[in-house]
Amino acid sequence: MRILGIDPGYATIGYGVVDYDKNRFKTVGFGAITTAAGVPFPKRIKDIYNDMITVIERFKPDEMSVEKLYFNTNTTTAIDVAQARGVIVLAAENSGIPVFEYTPLQVKQSITGYGRAEKRQVMEMVKSFLNLQKVPKPDDTADALALAVCHGHYSGSAYSKLWSENK
Question: What pTM was computed for the model?
Fold first, then answer.
């Protein structure tokens, strides 16, 4: 199964693509979609959508894993990120790709075994899981790869199989 992990944002959107088979991960590609400050927000959203379609067409993922949003401070940023996340999910939906959502706590638990792990621990574990020479940059890219690995873990679990059979 090919998994596209997405760390949503509107200035930088991290993406990571892994192939997952029988508890083994292979990195296919990763990077970041960026939009420039000062560009009107509707144009940035359009660019994010178009770039997501390009990423989807290039890597042909079977499923997408995206971070659930949780904000407790800056509501303006939260709304903008939510709008960007919406067009990311729309790009997947329009491409026929199922979308799975995970909280930061679920990602940390899946990657490190501890839901309150530090960001550096998560990044080092991503590097280890994927046999990478170094932690991918920017951080959004490493986070996207963590989301892809997280989905691999969840999709391969007995609970996931049971849930899928009972849908």
Answer: 0.90
